[in-house]
Amino acid sequence: MQDLLVIGGGINGVGIARDAAGRGLSVTLCEKDDLASHTSSASTKLIHGGLRYLEQYEFRLVAEALREREVLLKAAPHIIWPLRFVLPHDKGLRPAWMLRIGLALYDTIGGRRSLPGSRRVDLTKPPHRGVLQDRLRRGFEYSDCWVEDARLVVLCAMDARDRGAEILVRTECVALERHPTHWRATLRSRDGTERTVEARALANAAGPWVDEVARKALGQGPPARLRLVKGSHIIVPRKYPGQHAYIFQNGDGRVVFAIPYERDFTLIGTTDQLFEGELDSVTISPEEVRYLREAAGEYFRSGIAEDEIVATYAGVRPLYEDNSARNSTVTRDYAFELDTQGGAPILSVYGGKITTFRKLAEHALGRLAPQLPMGPKWTRTAPLPGGEMEDFAAFLWRAGERFSWMPPEMLLRLARAYGTRIDKVVGTADGLDRLGDHFGGDLYESELRYLVEEEFARTPQDILWRRSKLGLHLPAETERRVADWLNEQGGDFA
């Protein structure tokens, strides 16, 4: 019998599984699709405090998120790195004094910090001149961080597995039976094979499906109410030079980010639209495309044509219903519903931000501690797989000396993706011709093999769009070639 069954392979589920396994609990996690295949790979890719949440008086959430930003930056410096944000001041919207006060609070509310603070910026000078519209003459600059969101989920799952957890992808929990001392769950894999898992406690971290799982377990949903809010993004060719991001204020009170993305592109998002459709097929709507184009077009001199859009993505946020009048002001804080009345405990997780997943996991296990005696907290100072380094620049320099035969852009991509585990990707190769079959660009068989054997990848989409973003850079036929290679391996890659 397991101590804990976790349902859901998004950031909250893998965070709980990782923390629990490190505290000595026996853990099984099941995810009906791929890791991070829904909400957790559809974020704006930021580790941040949430500057706009200060307007909603979410001081605890912002302070916790800013502290966690520092923790995560140390835990995974290969997939998380600092990013400067430029906030233009636009007359008629938030006044300059309000922005200054908000940024001063943002600089201090999280306590000690390693990133530079905010400052004024002249938008009439490079690199902003010629990029932004002429009416925008001054603004502010502050720090937050970028994250490879889907990779963060995968790294947590890998760490959980390395600490003894069982991670089951493409395995759905189809039935739950409650007993006084344990849960009996029926898990079904894609090929129809079923198995039974018994666990002393259940963590329901199914994201947008959290109420569905709760009903399956309890016969009815828990007292909490869920508001599903869709956030969508567009990707366009690079709109401006430099490595900074922009944060644009809108007349509706929301903000839209424009962020350097995958070297050649700019990521623009996000929206806040009430979602009532099919959760397995979430896509951007024409109205959201128009909203993002118009929002960015209010600031960029060149505007954004619809035919510039090279890709889009959308995800649904499972927010804790707080009766807010607008979707954009519903709390992004997390909440728990613990049910112990009918037998073994079930903890349902609502809301949360990718930035605060580690603290969410700590608090979740704290709620289960009376039922599951466990070891002490440990994740605050523990690196994630590949993050065992003091400084990424120094690590990259040393990697360049060891892999001098590797093209610089390829080396940077692999170092960013895998950190210190780049050695497992490259193996004993001493040249490109020793990395196996070439699939285009800088994708070789050795990387595919690593992703399948170590990172739970099963399909071309897992490899080209979640474990990496190579799908943006490689020709469409690459997906077919990767699928053929996966099929040749003889495994279950449905």
Give your account of this protein's structure:
- With 494 residues, the chain is α+β, with helices and mostly antiparallel strands.
- The chain folds into three domains: 2-39 and 150-225 and 331-381, 3-Layer(bba) Sandwich (FAD/NAD(P)-binding domain); 227-320, D-Amino Acid Oxidase, subunit A, domain 2 (D-Amino Acid Oxidase, Chain A, domain 2, 2-Layer Sandwich); 392-488, Alpha-glycerophosphate oxidase, cap domain (Helicase, Ruva Protein, domain 3).
- The protein is built from 13 helices and 18 strands.
- Strands 3, 4, 5, 6, 11, 12, 13, 14, 15 and 16 form a ten-stranded mixed beta sheet that branches.
- Strand 1 (2-7), helix 1 and strand 2 (27-30) form a beta-alpha-beta unit.
- Helix 1 runs parallel beside helix 4 and helix 8 (392-402) packs across helix 9.
- The longest helix has 17 residues, at 59-75.
- The protein is globular and about 65 Å long.
- The protein starts with a strand and ends in a 6-residue tail after the last helix.
